[in-house]
UniProtKB/TrEMBL annotation, chain A:
Species the sequence originates in: Melia azedarach
The name this protein goes by in its record: U6 snRNA-associated Sm-like protein LSm3
Automatic annotation (TrEMBL), chain B:
Organism superkingdom: Eukaryota
Keywords attached to this entry: Cytoplasm, mRNA processing, mRNA splicing, Nucleus, Ribonucleoprotein, RNA-binding, rRNA processing, Spliceosome, tRNA processing
Molecular function (Gene Ontology), one example: RNA binding
InterPro entries listed in its UniProt record: Lsm6/sSmF, LSM_dom_sf, Sm, Sm_dom_euk/arc
Functional description taken from the UniProt entry: Component of LSM protein complexes, which are involved in RNA processing. Component of the cytoplasmic LSM1-LSM7 complex which is involved in mRNA degradation by promoting decapping and leading to accurate 5'-3' mRNA decay. The cytoplasmic LSM1-LSM7 complex regulates developmental gene expression by the decapping of specific development-related transcripts. Component of the nuclear LSM2-LSM8 complex which is involved splicing nuclear mRNAs.
SMART domains linked: Sm
Cross-referenced Pfam families: LSM (PF01423)
Domain Sm span(s) in chain numbering: 14-86
UniProt-listed PANTHER family: SMALL NUCLEAR RIBONUCLEOPROTEIN F SNRNP-F, U6 SNRNA-ASSOCIATED SM-LIKE PROTEIN LSM6
Protein name as it appears in the record: Sm domain-containing protein
From TrEMBL, chain C:
Positions of the Sm domain: 2-76
Annotated source species: Dipteronia sinensis
Described function: Component of LSM protein complexes, which are involved in RNA processing.
PANTHER family listed in its UniProt record: SNRNP CORE PROTEIN FAMILY MEMBER, U6 SNRNA-ASSOCIATED SM-LIKE PROTEIN LSM2
InterPro entries according to UniProt: LSM_dom_sf, Sm, Sm_dom_euk/arc, U6_snRNA_Lsm2
Name this protein carries in UniProt: Sm-like protein LSM2
SUPFAM superfamilies: Sm-like ribonucleoproteins
Length: 105, 91, 93
């Protein structure tokens, strides 16, 4: 049950916890982006100074962006590849940014 | 508008005091990758995890994305700097 | 609650582990530990043409830190259970 107290963002991680069961955007290292429904998130402390943010997303769309240099013209060719995955566990160490869906007030 | 921030910055002594004083203020967060995020700092924790509002993503100085709310994982953060909105708008 | 207990429930199921070097390995989950190290059996590499040297690998131990994703079997995911676990941790910490 979500009480008033629980639905306030007091620390950054609350922003993610409050997005449970909602479609979120996740930006990962190596030019990967995910959009999926957040089903699980856990903070895993490796050391006192190092923590992970593991997640399970459902109905996931992954977009991978690669930049290649054309052999002859030396132009940058930006390619995006997309795929969908039903359920994906995402290891937290690759996460850069998480954005919850826009809540229109 | 909180006046606490201004009062805090006048008496800033330690990095922790600085981080406390900039809540609710426009900031620039630079990541190790070189990407900049401009927005209003909502809150942050001891790992430098950051929650921002009205976030704009700049890659090589170019606006690439906008996020209503954004969580940035602390290990990617190079620095957090306060910014004046007017400066950001002009850039 | 130990964070990896969920993975223990998936032991014996087919999963695809995608590594940070882009190698994707499908296999039966044999075991998993607190570091999320994973032991897979009856493995096969998803893109065999690209990694022919992996053809003879039938089981393997994967260090947790090199994992990028794990694709989970859809019928092995209890969404309500995961939601409850997330809320419990949020309250606890």
């Amino acid at each position: 049950m979500a009480t008033e107290e629980e639905s306030a963002v007091k620390e950054p991680l609350d922003l993610i916890r409050l997005s449970l069961d909602e479609r979120i955007y996740v930006k990962l290292r190596s030019d990967r982006e995910l959009r999926g429904k957040l089903h699980w998130v856990t903070v895993w402390l490796l050391q006192a100074y190092d923590q992970h943010l593991n997640m399970i997303l459902g109905d996931v769309e992954e977009v991978v962006t690669t930049v290649e240099i054309d052999d002859e013209t030396y132009e940058e060719i930006v390619r995006t590849t997309r795929r969908t995955v039903p359920f994906l566990f995402v290891r937290g160490d690759g996460v850069i940014l998480v954005s919850p869906p826009l809540r229109t007030a | 508008m909180s006046t606490g921030g201004e009062k805090g910055s006048a008496t800033t002594k330690t990095p922790a005091d600085f981080l406390k004083s900039i809540r609710g203020r426009p900031v620039v967060v630079k990541l190790n990758s070189g990407v900049d995020y401009r927005g209003i700092l909502a809150c942050l924790d001891g790992y430098m995890n950051i929650a921002m509002e009205q976030t704009e993503e700049y890659v090589n100085g170019q606006l690439k994305n906008k996020y209503g709310d954004a969580f940035i994982r602390g290990n990617n953060v190079l620095y957090i700097s306060t910014s004046k909105r007017t400066l950001a708008d002009g850039a | 609650m130990l964070f990896f207990s969920y993975f223990k429930d998936l032991v014996g199921r087919e999963v695809t582990v995608e590594l940070k070097n882009d190698l994707a390995i499908r296999g039966t989950l044999h075991s998993v530990d607190q570091y999320l190290n994973i032991k897979l059996e009856n493995t096969r590499v998803v893109d065999q043409d690209k990694y022919p040297h992996m053809l003879s690998v039938r089981n393997c131990f994967i260090r947790g830190s090199v994992v990028r994703y794990v694709q989970l079997p859809p019928d092995g995911v209890d969404v309500d259970l995961l939601h409850d676990a997330t809320r419990r941790e949020a309250r606890g910490g």
